[in-house]
Amino acid sequence: MRNKLIAGVVAATLGLIALLTAMMPVQAAPEAGKEIKVLLVYSADSLKKSEYVMNAYESVLQEEGVSYRIVDVTELLANKPVDVVNASPAIIFPDAVLQTVPARFGEWTRSFLESGGNIAIVYDPGIKDNNGFYLKQAVLTDILGLNYINYVSQGTAAYTTGSIQFVSQQALDFFQIPRGKAINQFTISGYQVGALQYPIARTEGKEKLPEGTIFANAVIKGGETTPAIVLRDFAKGKILYVNMPLGHIKASEDDLPLRAFMRTFLFDVVQLPHVLNVARGLGGVVINWHVDSVVEYDTLPVMKKMRFLRKGINASIHITAGPDFIKIGDNEGFDACGMGKPLTRMLAEYGTMGSHGGWAHNWFADMIRSGAFKEKEIQEYMDKNSKCIESVAGGKIKEYSAPVGVHPQPDATNALQNLGIVAYYYTGDMGSAPNRAFSGGKKITDKVIAFPVYPYEKSASFYEMHALAKKTDAEVETWLLDSLDYVSRHRTIRLVYSHPRDIGYYQTAITKFFDQAELMQEQKKLRVQSMTEVATFLLRVLKTTTAFTESSSQLTVSLKNPENLNDITVAIPKVRYGKPVWEAQYLQEDDRYYYLTIGGGNEIEKTIAVPRR
Hints:
With 613 residues, this protein is of the alpha/beta class. The protein contains 20 helices and 32 strands. Strands 3-2-4-5-15-14-13-7-11 form a 9-stranded mixed sheet, sandwiched between helices. Strands 17, 18, 19, 20, 21, 24, 25 and 26 form an 8-stranded parallel sheet that branches. β13 (214-220) and β14 (225-234) form a beta hairpin. α5 packs across α6 (105-114). It is globular. The termini are far apart.
């Protein structure tokens, strides 16, 4: 009886709860939000032939802190353009991996732009039919206003090479090409060779492109020109067209075009949230001195006296340690463990020590060039060189520079990785940022960072600027100060290199460079760091898992790193989001972004909420 009474009470109570619940207002489920990602689009048949191109794009986007997803074009077209815009405001159609597309690709892309999306057309998407034959005009021709493939009418003449000439200094700066990488009317140049020749395609205008939309032209031999970089409005979106196979070029040891053009498109045009790859969100310079012979016995004390060695400027100082220079037995080397020992100890007070080649400068380079040294011997002499410096200066050598730039890939970098070196000076990818270098279409390693040299037109060292290029002190001063402005403004890193024996050519320019670098560092506009510091931070950033999730009211940034998130910075675009509440952390801003730096609390996870405008 008692059990029946209890059961009745329970039933009545549950019934009352159900009735009250039914009468209560329904609470909306929490809004899930959408994760913002850039899309890299491919077609299966094209990707099979050129997967290395997609790898190049992925590597650069990873290094630049961009959340992205690679997607098959058929999967893309299965979604409504307006739905895709909401989560992916930018789509990249890369070179080589999207040559064939479904019939309605052009119509879908038009709708995507009309819905407010933005696209980057790189070189050759949609130029072939499903049987692999060239179309009379590329699928996106009517949208772009430019037919970027004329193979049916011109045959192999549709493809050629040309130099890339920007229309103005402003256009060059907008696409983040350093001024030292351009010569003769804003033409992209290379170390020792002058104007670089890039693969390009002859194009045909289907309409007159709007004024101000051509930022650079390709100049073909004989003076013929064709558009190389076009940035134009279309409906509610924007189109970037680049007449260069950027992924292929990156995979062939020229990183700058892909990196610079994607940074401009994603960060300046579209203005996406992203993670910066520089500590505390500050760009900077690496000052790299190469010490390799007895000549430096006289110049190093002068460097110290003139304050080209400063405690507040952490340079990367690399030494060829043996007693010989050109050949074994010539006694012209720096001899870091012998006669050069006191100077080696002195240098260790002013920077991070590194290894410059393998024991004897020119001899080591010659042995590699002759084929006498392969990976095994290269590693043996690198190790010998490093151990000598470590025994005198203390600490572990983690950075390296190749004598005379002789650094055969992948053997030399494999040797560095085996020795625990994390950074190396590199004459490939000239003028670009530190990166995981590619060679022969393959990424060499994920564990060692290449530091391309930052050139002044065809020169790199102060000696070359003086003896070969005949640059004046005033010209070198302008180049050096501009390099500081460039890294500060674009929040990136560049490496400037020379030898101590070269300082006499440009004493005034170098002094002003050091003074300005020190001042800007005090003002927290940039940082002067060693290769080891920059590489170690970049490798940690690459381990960070990031998600940018947007709801109707806010952007949620989720970060996770197995080591820690110290000094990692998130860029939040002002055009879409309000000022974050960021107490007890480091907040910067410029005209486009808020920069939120995570403090030194060794957090491995962080969630940041930013209000929508």
